[in-house]
Amino acid sequence: MKFKILQHFTSVEVYLSQFLKVSKKNIHTIRMNSHHNKETIKINAKEADLNSPLTPTDVLEVNIDLGTSNYKENLEISITKEFEDDYLLIVSKPFGIKTHPNDIESETDTLVNYLISEYNYLEPIHRLDIDTCGLVILAKTPLIKAKLDQMLEKREIKRYYSALIKNNIKPQTINTNIGRDSKEKNKMAVTRNGKNAITNILDCVKVDQNKFLVTVSLETGRTHQIRVHLASNGVAIIGDKLYSKDGYKYDKMYLGALKVVFPHPVTDNIIEVKSSLEKEFLL
């Protein structure tokens, strides 16, 4: 795998550990492999090692397989790929399927199962609930997984959600605590002693009679956060069987992660991807 270097690094090891956040275990594996295979590390197509310095415009190659994903293959569903390069994949998860299995031996009907046949390694860096559709970002190599994990933790990956509701809501920031509902344990609720949850209502546009498309971004990631915050403001998501009064009338919940924006983990170019599932929200 090739990496175009954007700044000075005192060594390849520093680049891997500090910039890409590669684990000590994987760096040790690279070191051991390079002792008997001089093709493991190259800089500008020339043999190098972990101690070699890097300068801007250098092209670093790390030629080693650091791991595989063991999900069972399932070709029954074709998943739409919205963006792909050597490092990562962004796909649109349909309504009604899980992002990944809890048990890789017994479950074969999740997003990664439908994708894995084309890849040796593929791991999601976040998940969407089974009832939520939209964009999922997956790492195609362990050399990039930890970097993407850190970017998500530092909120460098901006995810924008869309939902269909029946009434208008003004742009605002909703800041409450969310915790387990005291009466129904499968539900969450706005509570005094829950965890702080911040939801930004960015826009709300009328798309049909009594139907509005609301755009949301999150500052926190609490369970059912968007669903709870919208319902608590009197605008439950259409098709939400937990938090709306008539969710049972619909075959799906109209909540989706329909746009992501983030700097590429290697090139630093801004990646902006929209989901092709947006059309599903036009009832």
Brief overview, please?
The protein contains five helices and 15 strands. The chain has helices spanning 12-19, 24-36, 111-115, 142-153, 225-232; strands at 2-4, 41-43, 46-47, 59-62, 80-84, 88-93, 123-124, 133-139, 158-165, 172-180, 188-190, 195-208, 211-218, 255-263, 270-274. A hairpin with a 6-residue loop joins strand 14 (255-263) and strand 15 (270-274).
Tell me what the structure shows.
With 283 residues, the protein is an alpha+beta fold. Helix content is 16%, strand content 31%. It has 5 helices and 15 strands. The protein has helices at 12-19, 24-36, 111-115, 142-153, 225-232; strands at 2-4, 41-43, 46-47, 59-62, 80-84, 88-93, 123-124, 133-139, 158-165, 172-180, 188-190, 195-208, 211-218, 255-263, 270-274. The strands form 2 sheets. Strands 5, 6, 7, 8, 9, 10, 11, 12, 13, 14 and 15 form an 11-stranded mixed β-sheet that branches. The mean pLDDT is 94.
Compile the SSE list and pairings.
Layout: E1 2-4, H1 12-19, H2 24-36, E2 41-43, E3 46-47, E4 59-62, E5 80-84, E6 88-93, H3 111-115, E7 123-124, E8 133-139, H4 142-153, E9 158-165, E10 172-180, E11 188-190, E12 195-208, E13 211-218, H5 225-232, E14 255-263, E15 270-274
Parallel strand pairs: 8-14
Antiparallel strand pairs: 1-4, 2-3, 2-4, 5-6, 6-8, 7-8, 9-13, 9-14, 10-11, 10-12, 12-13, 14-15
Mean pLDDT: 94
- The helix content is 10-25%
State which percent range the strand residues make up: 25-35%
Could you spell the SSE succession in H and E letters?
EHHEEEEEHEEHEEEEEHEE
Number of β-strand runs: 15
| Annotation field: number of helices | 5
- Extract low-pLDDT stretches: none
Which structural category do the helix and sheet elements fall into? alpha+beta
Q: What general form does the structure show? A: elongated
Report the biggest beta sheet as strand number plus sense, adding barrel if it closes.
11 strands, mixed
- Give Rg in angstroms: 22 Å
How far is it from the N-terminal to the C-terminal residue, by CA? 44 Å
